[in-house]
Amino acid sequence: MATKPDLPEPLIFVPAQGRPQLLFVLLHGEAASPEQLLPLADALKQAFPLCMVVLPHGYHDVTHQLPQLIGQVQQWQHAYGLSGQQTALAGFSQGASMALEASHAQPDLVGRVLAFSGLYATPPTDAPPATMLHFFHGANDRQVSVDQVEATISRLAELQGDATLDVASRIGHELHEALIKQAIVRLQTCVPLRSWEAAMSSMQQPADPGTPLLAGSDRTLH
Description:
alpha/beta; Rossmann fold; disordered C terminus
C-alpha cells in the first residue's frame, strides 16, 4: 500500500490474528520521524488488540498536504473495510494540527482525533458533526500555551462541538506517558455526545447523574 513517491513508506502494524477492527493513524511532529509516536502506538496496540496502527512520514504542510493525507487515510479504510467511525487520527504538535484540520476538511473521515500539544492551523469556524476531539496538553508547554487550548475548547463548545481537554501538570511540550495513558482512558470510556443525545432522546428521561457527560469536560492530571 504505497504512499506518494516523495514520502517514505509508513510504519504499519496489523493484528497478529484477525482482521483489523479499528484504524489509528499517528502523525509525528515537525522535524521528527514516526518513531516519535511509537510509545503511543504501543499503548494503542496493547489496549486494542484488533487495531491497525499506521505511522506515516511527513504531513506537516496543512495547505498542500491535507488532501494527500485524507486520500491516504481513505485508501487504508477502503483496503480493510473500515469506516470513519472505526478510524482515529492522532498527532503531536504539528501532527496534531494536521489531524484536526483533516477532521474538518473531511467530516466523515474519522470518529476521533487525539491532539497532543497542538492546535488548529486556523481557529475553527465550525465543528465536525461526527468526530470527538480530544486534546492532551502539558501545563508548562511554552510552544502552545494551555490558555490557547482552553480558548479553543470554549470556542468548540459554542459551535456545539464534542471535545475534551486533559492537562498534565509539570509537563511541557512533550508526548508524556501520563498523556498517553489518559488518551487510552478517553478512547475506552468517552461516549460520543451524539450517541448520548440519541440515547437520552429515545429514553425520554433525565440522564443518570452517575454517568459522566464527557463532551467538553476538563480534567487535570498530576
